[in-house]
Automatic annotation (TrEMBL):
Coiled coil regions, renumbered to chain: none
Highest classification ranks of the organism: Bacteria, Bacillati, Actinomycetota, Actinomycetes, Kitasatosporales
Any single GO CC term annotated in Swiss-Prot or TrEMBL for this entry: plasma membrane light-harvesting complex
Gene3D superfamilies from the UniProt entry: Photosynthetic Reaction Center, subunit H, domain 2 (3.90.50.10)
Name by which UniProt lists this protein: PRC domain containing protein
SUPFAM superfamilies in the cross-refs: PRC-barrel domain
């Protein structure tokens, strides 16, 4: 996992070492779910978002580069994507996430450059 898509953007306000698990996730057009897990590894940062009942418990892997801002007081992070884009994202696959660089390239390709 390389490139800006897998890095927190400076403008997001991310603080290295912050715990984001449990934060609400807001898309451009509404709530998406909550952060189930996250990584802040330099150049390989991501979030696993539990979409809850919104799309029947689907989990999606979001590259950190799609985060536009983080409100630590409100425990909410905002992503520069629509609910529809997240709904149609490739399903989170833990096995591929751990061992398959092609899976990460597919996700980066799907999300494209951040719209921040």
């Amino acid at each position: 996992m390389t490139g800006n898509m897998w890095s927190y953007q400076d403008a997001s306000g991310y603080r290295p070492g912050s715990e984001l698990t449990g934060f609400r996730v807001e898309a451009i057009d509404g709530s998406v779910g909550t952060v189930d897990e996250h990584s802040d590894e330099v150049g390989a940062s991501w979030l696993v978002v539990d979409t809850g009942g919104w799309i029947f418990g689907k989990h999606v892997l979001l590259p950190a580069g799609v985060i536009s801002s983080i409100d630590f007081e409100a425990t909410t992070l905002y992503v520069a994507r629509t609910k529809e884009e997240i709904k149609n994202a490739p399903d989170f696959d833990r096995e591929k996430h751990i061992s398959d660089d092609e899976y990460h390239r597919e996700l980066a390709s799907y999300y494209g450059a951040p719209h921040i």
